């Protein structure tokens, strides 16, 4: 019995170190995956705004972003989506309990002075690794997510058509619009 206790005492720190190293590796991989989609989406969004105005670019966020996320999954095995506490797309952006808790924590931390661009959370939950990174509002986002009285009538009309229960307005630059959420089975 004494040998078993000694062996367990010696092995436990080693196992803990391996688990921590595994989480660090997963965190790095999750960060990489999560950081690839937003700039690609932003580039497509800017191009569409130049071509057809903000109202014509709404399908980029609605349709193209999920397709781009599907491509990321095919290439990496990471499921990726955008979530928010103020949902626009009820079919795709409602956070689960873990994501909601992370978003609420991000809001508290941002209110306490932390930079929204630096807010993230990653951890192993059951048999998968989960990661979320805050998505701060950029000036371009205000076309559709800014104060309601500053959104053009054309944009309001398209938003009303696609999102009758839209709650994703009233933001200013730098606020947390939501988060990019990635997960992968272990």
Notes on the structure:
It is a single chain. A hairpin with a 2-residue loop joins strand 2 (120-125) and strand 3. The protein is of the alpha+beta class. A 4-stranded antiparallel sheet has the order 1-4-3-2. The chain has helices at residues 2-76, 97-111, 142-145, 153-162, and strands spanning 79-83, 120-125, 128-136, 176-185. The longest helix is centred in the N-terminal third of the chain and has 75 residues, at 2-76. The model is unreliable at 14-20 (pLDDT under 50). The chain has one domain (2-185). It is globular, with a radius of gyration of 20 Å. It contains 4 helices and 4 strands. Helix 1 crosses helix 4.
Class by alpha and beta content? alpha+beta
Overall shape: globular
Helix tally equals 4
How helical, in percent, are the residues?
55-70%
- Major β-sheet strand ordering: 1-4-3-2
Count of structural domains: 1
Distance linking N and C termini: 33 Å
What is the radius of gyration? Answer: 20 Å
Average pLDDT, to the nearest integer?
A: 90
How many beta-strand runs? Answer: 4
Low-confidence stretches: 14-20
Strand content: 15-25%
Task: Spell the H/E element sequence.
Answer: HEHEEHHE
Q: Largest sheet at a glance?
A: 4 strands, antiparallel
């Amino acid at each position: 019995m004494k040998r078993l206790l000694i062996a367990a005492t010696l092995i436990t720190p080693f196992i803990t170190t391996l688990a921590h190293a595994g989480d660090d590796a997963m965190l790095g991989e999750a960060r990489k995956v999560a950081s690839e989609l937003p700039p690609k989406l932003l580039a497509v969004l800017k191009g569409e705004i130049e071509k057809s105005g903000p109202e014509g670019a709404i399908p980029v966020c609605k349709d193209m972003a999920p397709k781009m996320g599907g491509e990321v999954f095919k290439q990496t095995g990471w499921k990726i989506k955008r979530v928010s506490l103020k949902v626009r797309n009820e079919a795709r952006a409602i956070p689960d309990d873990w994501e909601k808790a992370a978003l609420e924590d991000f809001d508290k931390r941002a209110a306490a002075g932390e930079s929204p661009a630096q807010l993230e959370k990653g951890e192993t939950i059951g048999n998968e690794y989960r990661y979320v990174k805050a998505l701060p509002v950029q000036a371009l986002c205000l076309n559709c997510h800014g104060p309601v009285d500053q959104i053009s009538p054309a944009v309001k009309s398209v938003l009303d058509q696609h999102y009758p229960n839209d709650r994703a307005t009233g933001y200013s630059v730098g606020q947390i619009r939501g988060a990019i959420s990635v997960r992968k089975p272990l």
